[in-house]
Amino acid sequence: MARSLHLGHLYDATLDDPAEHVTVTIDGDRFGAVTTRSDDRLGDEDLDLSPYFGLPGLIDAHTHLGQALPVAAIRDEGLLSIASVAAGIFQNCELALDAGVTTARDLAGLDGGIVQAIDSGVVRGPRIYPSGPALAQTGGHGSGHTPYRMTDAALCIPGLFQRALVCDGPDGVRLAARTALRRGATQLKVYGSGGVVSFADGPRDVHFTIEELKAAVEEAAARHTYVTSHAHNSEAIRRGIAAGVTCFEHGTYLDEPTAELMANAGASLVPTFMVLEVMRRRSESWGIGPGLLERMAGVGEAMQKALSLARDAGVRIGSGSDLLGPQQIGRAFEIELKTRIIGFRDALRAATIGNAEIMGLAADLGTVESGKLADLIVVDGNPFEDPAVLTDPDKIKVVIKSGVVVKDIRS
Questions:
Q1: pLDDT of amino acid 396
Q2: Where does the Amidohydrolase-related domain start and stop, copy by copy (predicted)?
């Protein structure tokens, strides 16, 4: 049965300004008509949301919902029970949904098991597109290797979580890619560069050869999907483009020629600002010492410059929170930070239309339009005037996912 939502304001990034007094019809799991409201008559199944501001369901294209362990405890994963790990993951999924994230691309950890659990209704959470275990080279970011202890990313719970698969050489990469796809990966992630918080490398280091990356791209293409690469520096991006990688995470030290190369190749960039702020604030509890904090200095500024370069070159921009650990909250802080650089409209576009395009889901997600999946969030406040309202779960009054009200905290 169709139902109508009567909203005071409605906005998606296809509009110049918010529309006022809007009626949105939902028919099954899809949007029906979106019209200017002519009267306030409500049917039994209709919702009066006239005091509130409607937006498309948010898409977070860089999540680590499965990395629910305290960051300082990652080296002691064997001391934690599977039940504790699962409970933390399920809580992160619920927190994401209640924050207005109706779709999440999980990069390094979750596999098809969590998709089954959410789709069956036993776990509350966003619509998840998992990468399964990410692909990492020996000694590289994500491998778990420290300089003097060769320990892979050890926690392996098929059907739930595994952070990474360590692989070397094209054949090793093929095997790892096929394993991730077998376990339900909807796209592959590779660690194409070192990381800001790494044990044995840095963000300016480059990982995997072009031949290794090509192996991952070929395996993804055989399953009608794509590869995204953790890549902080331009050489890692160039190597990825040469191999056919179509999406890049972070892009911290992107330069102008590489931005133009990305645009010409149709590649996308998913900057991740908020995790840096979170790491600084939680450095003590996360076990981030002075050396790593020093390495983080200037990363935020470099990422701002990279975003501007990519935008000016015409690169498609996405949005990701990159949150780690338990009790992951405040995901839309990423939108707030981007708003300070590119304005709210483009920041929201990145977190809706941009991410939908990157994930190949633009026909179904990203805007409030007839025929698309009915994902909608209803906010108490005006995010144009104060985007911080999106970071407060108490301000996210209603969340609708595929036409179903999954959160309603109106008094």
A1: 98
A2: 55-406
